[in-house]
Amino acid sequence: MNLRKPKNRPAVHISILAYIAYQNLLHKKLRTLLTVFGISIGIGAVYFLLSFGLGIQRLVTNEVIGNQSIRTIDVSVTNSKVIRLDDAAIERIKAVPDIDELGNVYYFPGSFKLNNSESDSIVYGVDKGYENLTYLNLVKGKLLSDVKDKKNAIVINTATLESIGLSKNPEAILGKEIDLIVPLDKVDKKIGTYKEKFEIVGVIDSGSGAEVFINSSIFRELGVPALTQLKVGAKDVKAVTKIRKQIESIGFGTSSPVDTLNDINKVFKFLNIILVGFGGIGMIIAVLGMFNTLTISLLERTKEIGLMVALGARSVDMKRLFIFEALFLSISGALIGIISALFLGLIVNLMMNMSASHRGVKDSFSLFANPPLLVFGVIAFMAFVGLLVVILPARRAQKVNPIDALRRE
User: Which of 29, 47, 118, 360 has the fewest Cβ atoms nearer than 10 Å?
Assistant: First the structure.
């Protein structure tokens, strides 16, 4: 009796192999459950730590970058005695290629009076270009560019209201008059101290310090000779470096949120590697457990494999059978691990927000980031690991001799 397989045998349908692999795993429920549990712990730890690292990175980035656009460049004067941001300099900068928009900025220390309360603040003179290039989180009211019929319009931030104890109801402050005082003696003695009444048209959330915003045309009409700062908007992020070099060649200093963002990314790149390293310890244990399960399964079913080959199955089908089993184990473990990590992250995040709210933090935050790319990436990684782990057992299953296998008791 010849039990060796003929050369041309029909392939076993993939769905049949998948079903057999699934039934084989169900046959040893406890072993399969323990293997999947080990994988889920390992992959869950990796996902949880990666999600935490990305979440912290996002929080730090948002806090540091704040309301600045990534494609903006802040142009400042490095030596006011030699060069300044006057009309001639602005025209030279405007001629630089790939610049999309310019925003004029004046800022000086000042003070204000509102509802019999007085406090210091930074007074900004801005135009529409500045508003377009800066994300101003409008809480109530309108921005200056939306109120063209009122020259003496002013926008204040929430920190300004907090400094005088009016932060609870920003809407009630709209339409009220505020006395603004800006000492411009150091800029030009002829200008002296600027005092004027303004109508509050909007409230924004722009930082922790008291800040008020008025039209830049006011400082220009007062005779302030040059801008304090120029905000330049590039057409895209790729053009930022080239524009900065050309502006710096004129003699101005430049800074961009891209610099800070790159520094943050470098720090968190190493932090994420360290976090994955800690999670990888559990991952290694899970992989060894899966390899052990597949190897034991092969040894237990050697006679069964020989019989299947003798009845017409191809040796390559036996290889595919073990590949399916490895994929079932790895993907199901990855899914359970990710879901568990998401649930744990939700609990941790809720507890941290509750703790922060008791300490006076009003805005909610998330310590974890769950981008779709991370979810699918972790699943794909685990599937790849499963394919690596099954290489040896699958090759051994493919090489099983049906005659030797059936002779075993």
Answer: 360
* Sign of the alpha-carbon dihedral angle for 319, 321, 324, 330: negative
CA distance 262 to 234: 18
Say whether 227 sits in a helix, a strand or coil: strand
Give the pair of three-digit tokens for residue 106: 């004046």
pLDDT per residue as tens digits for the range 366-403: 888 888 998 998 899 888 888 888 887 777 766 666 66
Q: The dihedral of CA 252, 107, 127, 227: what is its sign?
A: negative
CA distances from 143 to 124, 139, 203, 345 (A): 13, 10, 8, 38
Q: Are strands 72-76 and 229-234 parallel, antiparallel or unpaired?
A: antiparallel
Q: State the Cα–Cα distance between residues 39 and 282, nearest whole angstrom.
A: 8
Please name which of 133, 32, 6 lies closest in space to residue 73, comparing C-alpha atoms: 133
Contacts of 23 by beta carbon, 8 Å cutoff, 6+ apart: none
Which of 175, 117, 109 is closest to 142 using CA atoms?
A: 175
pTM: predicted TM-score of the whole model, two decimal places: 0.61
Q: Are 17 and 320 in contact (CB under 8 A)?
A: yes
Helix, strand or coil, per DSSP, at residue 126: strand
